[in-house]
Amino acid sequence: MKLSNMHLKTLREVPNEAEIASHILLLRTGMIRKLVSGVYGFMPLGWRSVRKIEEIVRQEMDAKGAQEIHMSAVQPAELWMESGRWFKYGPELWRLKDRNGREFCLGPTHEEIFTDIVRSDVNSYRQLPLNLYQIQTKYRDEARPRFGLMRSREFVMKDAYSFDRTFKDLDKSYDDMYDAYEKVFTRCGLNFRPVEADTGAIGGSNSHEFTALSEVGESEIAYCEKCNMAATTEKAACVDAPASNEKELPLEEVHTPGTKTIEEVADFLKLDKTQTLKALLFVTYDDDGKEKGYVAAFIRGDRELNRTKLVNALNIPEHAIEFADEAKMAAVTGCVGGFTGPVGLHDCKIVVDSEIPGLRNLCAGACKADYHMKNVNYGRDYNADIVADIKLLKVGDPCPVCGAPVKHARGIEVGQVFKLGTKYSESMGAYYKDENQKDQLIVMGCYGIGVTRTLAAIVEQHHDENGIIWPMSVAPYHVIITLVNPEDEVQSKVADDMYQKLLKAGIEVLLDDRKERPGVKFKDADLLGIPIRITVGRGAASGQIEYKRRSETEKEEISAAEAIARAIRTVEEEK
Amino acid sequence: MKLSNMHLKTLREVPNEAEIASHILLLRTGMIRKLVSGVYGFMPLGWRSVRKIEEIVRQEMDAKGAQEIHMSAVQPAELWMESGRWFKYGPELWRLKDRNGREFCLGPTHEEIFTDIVRSDVNSYRQLPLNLYQIQTKYRDEARPRFGLMRSREFVMKDAYSFDRTFKDLDKSYDDMYDAYEKVFTRCGLNFRPVEADTGAIGGSNSHEFTALSEVGESEIAYCEKCNMAATTEKAACVDAPASNEKELPLEEVHTPGTKTIEEVADFLKLDKTQTLKALLFVTYDDDGKEKGYVAAFIRGDRELNRTKLVNALNIPEHAIEFADEAKMAAVTGCVGGFTGPVGLHDCKIVVDSEIPGLRNLCAGACKADYHMKNVNYGRDYNADIVADIKLLKVGDPCPVCGAPVKHARGIEVGQVFKLGTKYSESMGAYYKDENQKDQLIVMGCYGIGVTRTLAAIVEQHHDENGIIWPMSVAPYHVIITLVNPEDEVQSKVADDMYQKLLKAGIEVLLDDRKERPGVKFKDADLLGIPIRITVGRGAASGQIEYKRRSETEKEEISAAEAIARAIRTVEEEK
């Protein structure tokens, strides 16, 4: 395409709202366009790249025998009530009513719809396995949409659902998708890592996130360089401290004025933080958003709470819990802000981290202002409603697999695969008849790729201070020919000739024939990040042009014919 | 693809809800799937055909230099308020709120969004002309969704918007799109007719509908075989009866007991219906849905009212008018059900058809039960607030262009092109600077193709009693190989060999290797309507297979090699 005909509006300045590179660059290149907070449109170049990612996804899904379909984005509430998610899903579920008052939502995922398909279409074991997918616009009414395509309210997603006879068959489907995802993200040019993940609101047993490594990512992952363990910090299991064989000492109340934090009390009493017990206080809500009860969670003083693990231990939706108003909670449970301990607490659910019962003689709040208790022991002095691993795996903690110290990294979740098992087939009644004509639950998996988020992740990993550096596979165009002086007949002829020849060879090529200063054109070429840049300037008179890769600094003067041959070869190799 | 691996569920019976061929066949082939009333999903075969139509549309749009983008389906109310459509658009506009109570709609069209793009991106005349389009899921919350994809609440649409400097340039853009649409629908195998159309809620001056001819279509068109005039009956202009040169006779009240209809009064008074005046009574509503006032429309007794023309004459939204409750209206305006005439009516808007002022001595209701007035004359006895053509062009009426008697036909509106002019650029402030740096309004056009409705229209025109007969260009697959007996090794080998060779040649081929009775397979092949059917049966032993076009009745016994060559050639020619 000729740039003089293209709708292109690049920006020199960094848009106010944008903080991270992908957001800044996608806006500056004019590839995306904000409509309202968290809702973006795609302009010609941006949409081309989205469609290339879609095509890569489609090819790899098809290669695994998955079949593309397209279901409605608008879903009736009834199906979500059947699965139980209508109430469990938080305010991120964008709900609406039709003219008759019937309730719908704009689908964030499609488990219900796909389960509904198989429960009506699948009768026999002969119809399984089955993998259906779609590439579609999805919705999440985020409280704080941010970072452009990274966390938006409308986004393009590929979602696939597998249906199997057995859990063993599900393993095979899961592995197939895992493999397809590795291929997809490799082809997209991403540096990524599959990590074990929590299953969140989707439910199910096993899950992996595909994380594109990036400092600006919202996923934090813990990984071990020794044994390759990798998991989201939400999910990563922790190694409990070894059980103590200290003798249980008598409970002792001590005056600890003004020591509201673990640091303060440990300092004051000259204790190591590992000898203290930290309390975290929460209120929970029911499906209607009314306060339901209080929760006190206890972990060793040096640990940090893993909120996801706590939510899972309580078996409640993520949005059904918040930090408690301590004054309100005190009136009901006897807790005392800054001095809460497990002894003497009442009328609340007590959750204790899994290593606590093995530890001895900890120091905890006395539920009395300015007092702590020493030598608090689980079993003797208090009991818990739930004992579970609710702590965070921190940098340097022992790896849960091999014991080596773990590291942390940040990343962008670009894909996730789940073993759903029979969660949805059970709640919605999806069965097949086995060889003996007996009804069996269909075993499900689900698999998502954030197509538009992948676009942002690619930009995060492929840019420099001048702009984007597209991998060939997802570049909106392969080649840009910068015609330095469109008034110069020789230059125009050479540029146009190359343009036509490249087009004919099936290369996607932009010809920058705009009447702009050369500096503007070079800046735009860098900003847009087209992988191969051909500059037709004064050298054109002697048949020479300048050939440059966007990813490299060297330029070469070569003949037009050689440039064409080289561009065709390179695109063939890399696309 | 092998059918044994494909998710395919065909139905033998006609689904209850379906009345027309496309709805029945798309459901019976399992290509579409109803989610709720007016909302359908697309299963593998259906989605393949939709994507083929999309690709045809994309190619023809790109060939005209239009650029594909992708805007949000969710649109903020603010933009619709700017254009004035938030209130004018009826309950078909599917409205919703986000978690913060901000109002949005699910876009039925995108004029506001695209106008917003150009008003911010376009500064100079040098950036024009511009044509941007998208292929996207659209929404209309229909009161009575029906006929499957024909009138659904969610549908795939291509919408394009052109931006020009002048109305003359708009003519060129419009002609380009008109031409592209002719190519698109021709490639889709449709028998269609472009007809002049009303501009409806979109607004603007000129418009053509592309109508796929079909008895089940909801568009009624009037056309002339002599001069090629063609228009929707909503739009079609009428030729007024010639003005009368009769002398005006004195008004005369006559007793006409029980003659409530035109037929009755004409019979009773022995008048021709052309000598009578028919009254139609309406109530109108304001933007908040409150009653605003009454309207009495008068046409010659033998004519029918064209409601669209009336709405346009009144310059109100289509949904802001309904037939009046005569009793309620009588109290305000003095009308009398069955005996309403223009003389003596008060406190209502009087709209008179354009030919009425030229006629003389008509018989009209006397606004008095059981009485009519004879010799009612416009100007002398009454006046109107509006005089406009509000009558329907009926079969046999003179063609407004050449005077020959017109015919009627029914069709499915698969596309529409509009000259919007400056309607949106004016209301939303979209200007460009001309050569003299002066602000000028951008001149717009908009152009829609109902992609999923086109799919239905194709099926309406291409089917027989056994199923669909796909044109090659939009067939989900080109060839189906029916393997009669999968247990037979020779048959299996021949079928599989042909399958592989066709795949390798880039042919989209289905292999029916299911363990089903041959009758079931043949029935499914007919139902699915794949253009080329190759049957591998007993003849396989001697190297012969059966070759048949779905559109024809003859079968031929030919060699496998010849069948492959012929299939490849045919697909090449027709795809």
UniProtKB/TrEMBL annotation, chains A, B:
UniProt EC number: 6.1.1.15
Reactions it catalyzes: tRNA(Pro) + L-proline + ATP = L-prolyl-tRNA(Pro) + AMP + diphosphate
CDD domains on file: ProRS-INS (cd04334), ProRS_anticodon_short (cd00861), ProRS_core_prok (cd00779)
A UniProt-annotated Pfam family: tRNA-synt_2b
Keywords: Aminoacyl-tRNA synthetase, ATP-binding, Cytoplasm, Ligase, Nucleotide-binding, Protein biosynthesis
Signal peptide segment: none
Aminoacyl-transfer RNA synthetases class-II family profile domain span: 33-471
GO CC annotations on file: cytosol
Subcellular location: Cytoplasm
One GO MF term attached to the UniProt entry: transferase activity
PANTHER family, per the entry: MITOCHONDRIAL RIBOSOME PROTEIN L39/PROLYL-TRNA LIGASE FAMILY MEMBER, PROLINE--TRNA LIGASE
Family: Belongs to the class-II aminoacyl-tRNA synthetase family. ProS type 1 subfamily.
Subunit-level organization: Homodimer.
Role: Catalyzes the attachment of proline to tRNA(Pro) in a two-step reaction: proline is first activated by ATP to form Pro-AMP and then transferred to the acceptor end of tRNA(Pro). As ProRS can inadvertently accommodate and process non-cognate amino acids such as alanine and cysteine, to avoid such errors it has two additional distinct editing activities against alanine. One activity is designated as 'pretransfer' editing and involves the tRNA(Pro)-independent hydrolysis of activated Ala-AMP.
Matches recorded under HAMAP family: Pro_tRNA_synth_type1 (MF_01569)
Protein name: Proline--tRNA ligase
Organism: Aminipila luticellarii
